[in-house]
Write a structure and sequence with these properties.
Elements: H1 3-7, H2 11-19, H3 25-38, E1 45-48, E2 68-72, H4 99-106, E3 110-115, H5 158-165, E4 171-173, H6 185-192, E5 197-199, H7 211-218, H8 227-232, E6 253-257, H9 267-282, E7 286-290, H10 298-313, H11 331-342, H12 345-357, H13 363-385, E8 389-395, H14 404-407, H15 412-420, H16 425-429, E9 433-440, E10 446-452, H17 458-472
Helix pairs in contact: 10-12, 10-13
């Protein structure tokens, strides 16, 4: 089987081939290592795990026996450095595995390496890493050794998205940042690279029967079709079991919100939005317009809540117990110098802002008010889904991925506001959503739409995404034969 043929298989397909003896797990791993070497110019990996580390893959009966995967570098991996792409942790080697990593390894999966990201997952372009920016494979000239400009791949998990898009990994582990409302970031880079990404109902996660399969669905960018999620994501209860067949005619209401038509939205994105609505309408769905009046407040709401969480959680990185340490004449000076050198400007800025919001004199004015706004945003979604609406259709980004030179003209804070506006509100509300690439821009870059459904209605969401995926026949990225 040719290299590209092996690496274009889905997780389900490659697991089945290995289990049935149709292909050797060593051959699959070798092809992934080869691809990792080929995509070095994209800077997708921070650490590549030595092949000898992956000698024991467990019993061939395990569900993921021999299937390669990558780990975002903010997950702890025993014996393999976990840097969070930060100077603060550049030499940190954990003595334990994150739960998701541990269970994937016990299921027989093979870890290829740790992927690049924005420092401490704070960014929307994967350009704020200690190890340099991640480059998108779309329109990248692999034959040109002097690529001074390239298209960004979104953030903060750009390296993970590139690994999956190019076939260097069959799936990757991702996570929302510190349990906060930042889950959209792991969808942002999937949008920029033309990949599918499912965010299931955050409340529903605790009910999923099999933790291995749940984490596969929840924490990785789906490499191939929506069927990947349909096969893995299930619950034994009949009333919530995923339906794997969609009727010929759609019998549901598809809505679009005027608040998502934000200033600066690309005409190509608006055209794709209208065309996608037409696809549903022509298939028999009733398309209506709805209003989510508090959508415009989601970004400032997140900026307060996110910064507050950052300030609280990042206090542990003081240079004393672990992490980067700079000696000082006294303890406070050691703390200050260690943190000043350990964190980049973006991380330090959020720590400062979060501490300000959490001051006793500001708590009610900022943090408490932001929590109330979050409730209003959640109520907006609850209200529209309490009517006859089944699916909400919105753009996933305001424009296709920009060039690195263009992206860097404004600060990380401004870029976060611009690129998160469409994806972020659903995370404050905790409703399930999926990003589906629908077509290419005039420049040949992916444009994606976002489908949103009510709490615990993941089955309708996945079925609708499957229908849309089959209707648009999006041309997934094909790695060029350059070597």
């Amino acid at each position: 089987m040719a290299s590209n043929g092996i690496l274009q298989k889905s997780t389900v397909q490659i697991a089945s081939l290995i289990r049935n003896g149709a292909i050797s797990k060593d051959v699959v791993a070798r092809e992934c290592y080869k691809r990792i070497e080929e995509i070095k110019p994209l800077n997708a990996f921070i650490t590549v795990v030595d092949d000898h580390t992956n000698k024991n893959h467990g019993s061939t009966d395990l569900p993921l026996h021999g299937v390669p995967f990558a780990v975002k570098d903010n997950f702890s991996t025993v014996g393999v450095r976990t840097t969070c792409a930060s100077n603060m942790l550049k030499d940190y080697v954990p003595t334990f595995n994150a739960t998701v990593v541990d269970r994937l390894l016990k299921a027989g999966a093979v870890m290829m390496g740790k992927t690049n990201m924005d420092e401490f997952a704070m960014g929307s372009g994967s350009v704020n890493s200690l190890f340099g920016p991640v480059r998108s494979p779309w329109l990248y000239d692999f034959n040109n050794t002097d690529n001074s400009d390239w298209f960004i791949c979104g953030g903060s998990s750009g390296g993970s998205a590139v690994a999956v898009a190019t076939g260097a990994s069959y799936f990757i582990t991702l996570a929302k940042f510190y349990g906060s409302a930042c889950f959209w970031r792991v969808r942002l880079q999937s949008v920029g690279l033309g990949r599918l990404y499912l965010q299931p109902c955050l409340i529903e996660l605790i009910y999923i029967n099999s933790i291995i399969y749940a984490e596969l669905c929840v924490n990785f960018i789906i490499q191939h079709p929506v069927w990947e999620a349909l096969e893995f994501y299930y619950d034994p209860r009949p009333y919530r079991k995923i339906l794997q067949n969609l009727a010929e005619t759609l019998v549901f209401v598809c809505a679009f919100s005027k608040e998502y038509n934000v200033p600066g939205m690309s005409p190509e994105v608006i055209e794709a939005w209208n065309r996608t609505a037409d696809i549903f309408e022509n298939a028999g769905a009733r398309v209506v317009q709805v209003s989510l009046p508090h959508t415009e407040y989601s970004i400032p709401c997140y900026q307060v809540l996110g910064a507050a969480e950052v300030a609280s959680n990042m206090a542990r990185f003081d240079g004393l117990e672990f992490g980067h340490r700079v000696e000082g004449d006294y303890t406070e000076k050691m703390y200050a110098r260690s943190r000043s050198e350990g964190f980049n400007e973006t991380v330090a800025g959020r720590i400062l802002a979060g501490n300000y919001f959490l001051l006793k004199s500001n708590y009610e004015k900022y943090y408490e008010k932001a929590m109330k706004v979050r409730r209003l945003i959640t109520d907006d979604f609850l209200n529209i889904f309490s009517t006859s609406v089944d699916i909400l259709l919105t753009p996933a980004m305001v424009s296709p991925s920009p060039l690195y030179s263009e992206f860097n003209q404004r600060s990380n804070r401004h870029r976060t506001v611009e690129h998160d506006v469409c994806l972020q509100p659903v995370n404050l509300a905790g409703v399930p959503a999926i990003s589906v690439p629908v077509n290419l821009s005039q420049n040949g870059l992916p444009i994606s739409m976002q489908l949103i459904s009510a709490h615990f209605n993941d089955s309708t969401l996945l079925s609708t995404a499957k229908f849309l995926e089959q209707s648009v026949s999006f041309p997934c990225f094909k790695f060029p034969d350059i070597i």
